[in-house]
Amino acid sequence: xxxxxxxxxxxxxxxxxxxxxxxxxxxxxxxxxxxxxxxxxxxxxxxxxxxxxxxxxxxxxxxxxxxxxxxxxxxxxxxxxxxxxxxxxxxxxxxxxxxxxxxxxxxxxxxxxxxxxxxxxxxxxxxxxxxxxxxxxxxxxxxxxxxxxxxxxxxxxxxxxxxxxxxxxxxxxxxxxxxxxxxxxxxxxxxxxxxxxxxxxxxxxxxxxxxxxxxxxxxxxxxxxxxxxxxxxxxxxxxxxxxxxxxxxxxxxxxxxxxxxxxxxxxxxxxxxxxxxxxxxxxxxxx
Length: 287
What we know:
By secondary structure, this protein is an all-alpha fold. Helix content is about 70%, strand content about 0%. It is built from 9 helices and 2 strands, in the order H-E-E-H-H-H-H-H-H-H-H. It has helices spanning about 25-45, 75-80, 85-110, 115-125, 130-140, 145-160, 165-190, 195-220, 230-285, and strands spanning about 50, 70. The protein has a two-stranded antiparallel sheet with strand order 1-2. Helix 6 (about 145-160) packs antiparallel against helix 7. The radius of gyration is 29 Å and the shape is rod-shaped.
């Protein structure tokens, strides 16, 4: 009896049809470097501050400890947020980069044409038993959905020519081919989204940490002997508010991005399930 080809190479290679960044750690590292440079030389540029003394340095980060200064605009105020700011900027930049990366990746996964029209056209071909035409549509469409359909249609043809297996075995084999092709595409669609999901919480928690540190500095200034140091008090308040703002912005943007792309993936998955079911049912009806 003819075997069901357990060693047959899959018609779809995992990740082949989805462009994207495979190593997110490099993205995080690059964002950290950019965030530190921005913090030191943009937000910490002396042009954003007023001085009680003289300072000719390139960044306020390297200013003498006894130099009295205060920000004269919002950019300088962000610098006063302290060392937690570049960490929050790293998280925020990472969310932005990975969101853009997912937009490109899911765009390539969708293919060249409208996915709803593609599914409808393939189903029309199946009704007419025009398998070759459906395969041509897959070549034109490209992307993950088309790749899964192409793999299913290839198995459809092989089962159509098979004279050894029973109808139930053929349908089961075809169903398995659809499931395997789908399973090989899904990891590439969801790649990097777990990191974005993590940043929804991490951004808020790091922002809260910066807020607590800033408030501690504020209370230290208030508890100082004699008159409270207004400079230290304002520094602590600035650090608390700036970190709160960055943490909320990072968490909010990450939540929006994660939910948006999860919905996109669900739409692609639904299209794959719909067309896969149609292929299996068409084969069962015609044999």
